[in-house]
Amino acid sequence: MPIWWKQWIIKWMDYPLREGLVWAETYRIEEFLGMGSYGQAYRCTDLRSGTSVLLKRAKPSKRDTGRRLLRRENDILQKLDHPQMPQWLDWAMHRREAALIMAFIDGVNAEQAILLEGRTYTELEALLMVQDLLSPLKHLHEAGYVHRDVRIPNVMLHRENIYLIDLGLACRIGEKNPDGREEEAPSGFADSWGAVKHRMRQPDRTSDLYGLGHLFLFLMYAGYTPEEGEEERGWEEELTLKPEVRSFVKGLLESRWQTAAECGRILEGILEHYSSGNNE
Q1: pLDDT digits over 148-159, tens only?
Q2: Which CATH number fits domain 18-103: 1.10.3720.10, 3.30.200.20, 3.30.2350.20, 3.40.50.620?
Q3: For 196, which of 25, 146, 161, 207 is 20 to 30 Å away at the CA?
Q4: How far, in Å, are 33, 114, 126, 151 from residue 155 at the CA level?
Q5: Are 210 and 252 contacting, i.e. CB atoms less than 8 angstroms apart?
Q6: Catalytic annotation, pick one of 64, 149, 166, 191
């Protein structure tokens, strides 16, 4: 089969559901929100209550893998109860297809805020976001799971509130072969996306802290403009950070701490310098 034909079939299979369709006689689709590697998300109206909910279905092209990951996400969400994470509502069958229903979180994700709205972050603002995200991560880890995808697209912003969303890649801590396929060796240099992704996908708690380190760097680079003709350098040289902050970020990237609680205690000490006015 020609590659172009195969790609066309996949696009056809994964074409979004139409607005107005009622799933399981209960959830009316209002808006297609987006598509990830394995799933599609929709804003829906619960016809029983009139409230907005989020419906997530597996991409049809992913077949058994997509369905298995969606079921796993469903099972994990049912075991969680944290105000900064999506609330599980339902597992709804429509014909022979299942969908995960969860509370709808209004707002924009951090990636949209940076790329579409031009949002930039100060060092303190970025540290405070990391601190906010440690709370849901601590809850997730204590429940025995790891997120494995802590990135700016999975951080929702609504007014002053910050949420950690999309547990589509989450798995049990220490789970063997969580993606159901043969593990691939990291590709590229140590700071390339292939190597970063490989490290972030490991089924241990430090993977999420590593993800937090890269998230902090993304926030800081949102306001960074290199000089014309300047050669690319490492983040430690390009970003102007306080020594203790630079050390903290390196600790996240080097797995210096094993738990979110340990990491949080270090961060609290750094933030005390700001609250006391010692931020020079």
Answers
A1: 999 999 999 998
A2: 3.30.200.20
A3: 161
A4: 15, 12, 13, 7
A5: yes
A6: 149
This prediction's pTM: 0.88
75 by DSSP, 3-state: which?
helix
Task: List every span in the chain annotated with CATH 1.10.510.10.
Answer: 108-275
Kindly report, residue by residue over 15-46, the tens digit of the pLDDT: 899 999 999 999 999 999 998 888 999 999 99
In this structure, are strands 155-158 and 108-109 parallel, antiparallel, or unpaired?
Answer: antiparallel
Q: What is the pLDDT of residue 186?
A: 45
More confident residue, 131 or 178: 131
**What pLDDT is recorded for position 68?**
93
Strand duo 52-58 + 97-103: pairing: antiparallel
- Per-residue DSSP letter, 116: T
CA separation for the pair 15, 46 (Å, rounded)? 23
Is 64 a known active-site residue?
no
